[in-house]
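Running co-folding for zinc ion.
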Amino acid sequence: MTHNATYECAVCGTTYPADRPIWRCTCGGHLNLSPGPGLVRADINGADASLWRYRTGLALAGPPKVSLGEGWTPLVMREWDGAPVHFKLESQMPTGSFKDRGTAVMLNHLLEVGVGPIHEDSSGNAGSSIATYAAAAGLPCRIYVPATAPRAKIVQIAAAGAEVRAIPGSRQAVTEAALAATGESFYASHNWHPFFIEGTKTLAYELWEQLGFQVPDNILVPTGYGSNILGLDRGFDELARRGEIAHRPRLFAVQAENCAAFAAAWAAGAADYVAFAPQATVADGIATVKPVRTTEVLSALRHSQGGVVAVPEAEIGPALTALGRLGLFVEPTAATAGAALTQLLRAGTIHRGETTIAVLTGHGLKAADKIGELIGRG
Ligand SMILES: [Zn+2]
């Protein structure tokens, strides 16, 4: 194991070497990976047009055993409400969502430490990502999804050869079903496993490199569990410790107002989870009732001097349409970033002269039926 990476339980403080397939502490608490060494720009392999150009900064022992060319996604500039905005097209990953960054690194870690059949629960995108990479790795895979998950995502999981278990009820009920199966196969959970965040941190490296080794002022990210917020925090922290950057971007977690765990905690000034009443939202990918790392995400947002933006349901469709007119076809979850941009610009929280990134997390083809209804083509 390179870098002597260790896990630390966020609840009881027990540490474990990161050389075994575990996803939580014996006490039930979640694990966080020790700070990594990061990298300097001379470490980047510019010949590799994928996230593996940053391999020396990852807590993996060797080169990837499985890759579908994930990462190095386009960063395109468009005008939004009169302001220049860089849109990061994570929607153009191999399986159509940002999840591939975390999945690729997590699965390669699991292959290094040894793992057999795996299972996972997901609102759809992580499930299709894990199922696809499991297929590429030759691992048997079972995915628990909400019975209401968009059809395209379920089809994508099935096409990869994974077993699909559709669970009626809430998103939480899906998680409970997956937790109950932990004795049968390894729970390769994108929400629990620390190496998923080790993968999403490459988003920070990539934005920094694509901006000519500059740090943006603001980054807006549609947020359910917060793996991109935690990955960005981790990546920029590493670059700061290596002396590659002098300041940090403000991170804004974008949520659907109808189901906004972080917004509830943020409004209450709380450092941890605050109970709230979740309602249905078209932004199914971020309809998270109980995030695993609430404290860590809130802390990362505060540390960055950013915040949380809650987007009213009625603003998601118009944002999706406006993005479509710019050539950016995204699923409703990703369109919340556009609605949040409008809010932050109008409030004067972000300014036209600043460098602002909106992360578009999932492709429109993931949710064509739902988008049809939103734009009156149902
Ligand atoms: Zn513990």
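Result summary
The chain is about 35% helix and 15% strand.
Residues 133 and 149 are 20 Å apart (CA to CA).
Job closed.
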